[in-house]
Amino acid sequence: MLALILASWLVRDIRAVDADELWRHWAGFPDARPEAIPATSPLDVALLLVYAVATVAALRSSVATTALVATGVITLAVRLPGLWNIGSRRMETLFSDDLRSRALICAFVALAAGIALLITAGAGRRPPAGSYERLPTRPGPGASVAAFLMLGAAGAVLIAWEIRQMARYPEIYPAWYVGGDDRVPHGVIDPPPGWATAALALLCLVAGVSALFHAVYARPFGLTAAALLLPGGVLGLVRTVHYDLLDHFGSLSTETQLTVLSWLFEGFAALVVLIALAPRGLPDVPDPYGPGQGPYGSQASGPVGAHPYPSGPYGPGQQPPAPGYGYPQGGGGFGPPPPPSQPPPGW
Questions:
Q1: Which residues contact 35 (CB under 8 A, 6 or more apart)?
Q2: Rounded CA gap, 54 and 221, in Å?
Q3: How large is the average pLDDT for residues 175-192?
Q4: Distance separating alpha carbons of residues 94 and 33, to the nearest angstrom
Q5: Is there a contact between 77 and 114 (Cβ–Cβ < 8 Å)?
Q6: Does the CA dihedral 306-310-316-322 come out positive or negative?
Q7: What's the Cα-to-Cα distance from 52 to each of 46, 71, 185, rounded to whole Å?
């Protein structure tokens, strides 16, 4: 449902605004002249991708529960400001009453769907039904470190630019976060820019820390953060190429240089996280050697609580016996029982 709602708004913008002008408007080119004010932004394209992947994950993936949680959380975060922004004075001057009414209905539906996703994820939590059921996965050691470094740095960069802007343009606050001001443009269904940036920065930091600790929810949250981080990097690269900023990088001001580097880093960080967390991680198997690890570094398998080798006292450097060798444990199986440790009385 969320994907269909978002797709309908994107189709509306493509029909109402020329596709080329819509792209130029999204890229932030000052000479863009759309025939109508777009209702969407590049954030909505990334959200559509997130919804499509979450739908597939909910049907087939072992991390379906955490994928639903991540989708519900980000939906609530980006659609909540619409409750007070869609009816603001600025929106009344830019969009028709019919369009704003549809946007408000969609906002309520999206919020209800986000809450329903969280409830469904909570109700669907249960232990595995058997060894045939795929277990949730955690990111491996290398993927965890890469995701932590990239997402943590990206979140820090976003926060640093927010602090810089707050010091340089104090007159646009608090509208930068809550909307309702003509100086802070955004689509009718989208959150204010500051709100969206703060939500993305928080998501990056949470996903990065969870990846460092190999949490089960690290992969869905990390992939969601990377998907939402990617449009900023891609559009920043488009602006950099369009204005030949790299050719004149040395002559740019320090702030402009940092802006270009931030755009490129956002795109790079998003790609690294997507590559690191997209592959299936290690099964969430409780084991004394750590989640998903066997005693010799191999990946454990089987239902929760199962161990690949029998337990027992083994000396330093010794390995447990392979299954099928030695005396049967507990006197079961074929052949004579093992000899007693002490002879019976009278021997």
A1: 16, 17, 18, 21
A2: 11
A3: 86
A4: 15
A5: no
A6: negative
A7: 10, 10, 28
Q: Encoding tokens for residue 334?
A: 């074929």
Q: Contact at 8 Å (CB) between 292 and 299?
A: yes
| Interval 4-30: pLDDT, tens | 999 999 999 888 888 888 888 888 888
3-state secondary structure of 11: helix
Tell me the CA end-to-end span of the chain in Å, nearest whole number: 82
Whether 116 contacts 169, CB under 8 Å: no
Stated pTM of the model:
0.78
Look up residue 91 and give its two tokens. Answer: 């929106």
Question: Do residues 287 and 141 lie in contact, with contact meaning Cβ atoms separated by under 8 Å?
Answer: no
Higher pLDDT, 194 or 336: 194
309 secondary structure, DSSP code: S
Q: State yes or no: pLDDT of 219 exceeds 50.
A: yes
Amino acid residing at 61: S
Report which of residues 107 and 345 the model is more confident about: 107
Asked whether 299 and 285 are in contact (CB, 8 A), the reply is no
| Nearest one of 42, 41, 47, 103 to 70, comparing CA atoms | 47
User: For tokens 């493509």, what's the residue?
Assistant: 14
How far apart (Å, rounded) are the C-alpha atoms in residues 316 and 262?
Answer: 52
Q: Which residue has the higher pLDDT, 92 or 199?
A: 199
CA dihedral 41→47→49→55, nearest 10 degrees, is -150
Structure tokens at 97: 């009453």
Which pair of structure tokens corresponds to residue 141?
């050691």
The token pair that represents 194 in the structure block = 């500051």
